[in-house]
Amino acid sequence: MPSDRPDPQEFLEMAQRILRGLFDQPRGADDTRDDDPWARATRERRREPSPEERRENLTFALATRAVEALEDLALNVAAIRQRLERTTVQEPRPEDDAGRD
């Protein structure tokens, strides 16, 4: 059964051509342009963090995780307290019964 819908493969090929046209520099263009953020980002290489930077990153990550765990614990304690308050039946006070006799 033929359909009027476009072929997905053609759509992907056209999208790739458009993206290549946007980001590829024409032949002979100056490769050292610093005003082009795309060229700058693709030219720069990521360096490995120093041991001090790794230690700081790990410390920050662990501290963040500890704070999140404490927040989770506080929420759980609050939920348990609310559940106990709802399920606990308050027993009548002896003073209330003495006045009724």
Helix tally equals 4
Q: Bin the strand percentage.
A: under 5%
How do the SSEs run, as a string of H and E? HHHH
* Secondary-structure content class: mainly alpha
How would you describe the shape?
A: elongated
Low-confidence stretches at least 5 residues in length (pLDDT < 50)?
none
- Counting DSSP E segments of at least 2 residues, the number of strands comes to 0
Distance between the termini: 90 Å
The largest sheet is:
none
**Alpha-carbon Rg, integer:** 33 Å
Helical amount among residues, as a percent range? 55-70%
Write down the domain tally: 1
Mean pLDDT: 77
Region (Disordered): 20-57, 82-101
Biased composition (Basic and acidic residues): 27-57
Structure description:
This protein is mainly α and 101 residues long. It has one domain (8-90). The N and C termini lie far apart (90 Å). It has helices spanning 8-23, 37-43, 51-87, 94-98. It has four helices and no strands. The model has no long low-confidence stretch (mean pLDDT 77). The chain is elongated.
Produce a short descriptive summary.
64% of the residues lie in helices and 0% in strands. It is an all-alpha fold and 101 residues long.
List the helices and strands and how they pair.
Elements: H1 8-23, H2 37-43, H3 51-87, H4 94-98
